[in-house]
Design a protein that fits this description.
- The chain has 12 helices and 11 strands.
- By secondary structure, the chain is of the alpha/beta class.
- It folds into 2 domains: 222 residues, Rossmann fold; 83 residues, Chorismate Mutase Domain, subunit A, CATH 1.20.59.20.
- The strands form 2 sheets. The chain has a 7-stranded mixed β-sheet with strand order 1-4-3-2-5-7-6, sandwiched between helices. Strands 8-11-10-9 form a 4-stranded antiparallel β-sheet.
- A hairpin with a 2-residue loop joins strand 6 and strand 7.
- Helix 1 crosses helix 2 and helix 9 crosses helix 11.
- The chain is elongated and about 75 Å long.
- Belongs to the tRNA(Ile)-lysidine synthase family.
- It catalyses: cytidine(34) in tRNA(Ile2) + L-lysine + ATP = lysidine(34) in tRNA(Ile2) + AMP + diphosphate + H(+).
- GO terms for molecular function: ATP binding; tRNA(Ile)-lysidine synthase activity.
Amino acid sequence: MTSRPASDSTAAGTPFPHPVSPDLIAALRRALQALPRPPGRFAVAVSGGADSAMLAVHAAAVARELGAGVALLHVHHGLQAAADGWRDQVEALARLLELPLRQARVEVDAAGGKGIEAAARDARYAALARLADEEGIGLVLLAHHRNDQAETVLLRLLRGTGLAGMAAMAPLTSRDGLTYLRPWLEQDRTTILQAARQFADATGWHAVQDPTNADPRYTRAALRELLAPVLDARWPGWRAIVARHARHMAEAGEILDEVAREDFAALEPGADGASFSLAAWRRLSPARQAHVLRHWMAQQGARMPTEARLNDLLRQLRGVHSLGHDRQLRVEQAGHVVRCHRGRVWIEPQPDPQTPASR
C-alpha cells in the first residue's frame, strides 16, 4: 500500500474552482446531512471511471461547504493491462483536487469458486476497509447510481433472489466496521456523464474506460450490452421503474424484519438467541415459520439455505415429536448445524474436522 501526502481540503467558504452539477451537489449534500452525525472527515472510493471521479469532484466541493475533510481511496486490482494507467489518472485527479490519496494493490483470487466479479468485489471492499482504517475514517462514499441499481435488481431477479435481495443496494450500509454511503442511487448516469464532460473540458482530465464494462463475457456487462438496449427501445423509463421497485422492496423488507423480530421474541428464545421453543414456533402460520427461521439463522451468522434445503428443514421441524426426542434431527447448513433436543431448536457452528477434539 502507498499513500500520497496532500492537504485535506481548503477552508470552508472558498469558491470551488471546477464545474459541478447542481443536481449532483444537491443529492450529495442531502445524503450527508441526513446522516445521524455530520462527518468531520470522510473518503471517496475512486476507480478512475467517470462515476467515481465525479463523486470525488462533487465531494470536494460539498466538503468545502461543510468544513469537512476528504480523502480518496483507490484499489488497484491488477486485472487489466491498463490498470497502472488508471492509477496514474487517479493520482492526477487527487493533485487537481488537492486531496490526499491512499492506494492499495490487491490480489484477486480468481480460482476461489466465487467468480472473478465477486472475488474482485470482495478484495476491493477488504482493501477499502484497511485504507479507511489507516486514515482513521469511518465513512466511505460509493458512486453507484440509478442505472447500477436497476441492473442489480434485474441480475438478482434472474438469479432467483428473495425479497431482501430484490431491495438491491441500500443508500447506507455497514461492512467490516465501515459505513458506506451511496448518495447518487436516485441519479441517472446521464447526469454524471454530462458533469464528467464539463469537467474534462474545463480541466483536461479525462475519466478512464474499463473494457470489462462492455464485455458480455461478464454478467453485468452482458445485461448492459445485450438486454438493456432492448428494454431502452421498448420501455425508455425502465431504470427509474426498476429502481423504484427496489425502494418498495426495501420498505417491505423492513416491515417483514419487524414481524420476524416480534415472532422470534415470542418463541421463548435462549439468552444468546441460539435456540427457541419448537412448540411456540409451530403455532405460527407456515409462511411466518419459514420467515422467522430465516431471520434466526441470519442473526446467528449462518448462510441462507437454498429453497430446497429450507423446505427440508421445515418439513423435519414440523414432523419431529413436540419434545424433540422421537428421532435425532440434525441438519447441516454451510458451516452450521441445526438440531432439536428436548423441545427446543438449536443452531451452532459446525466443528472443524481439522481441529482436534478437546480432551
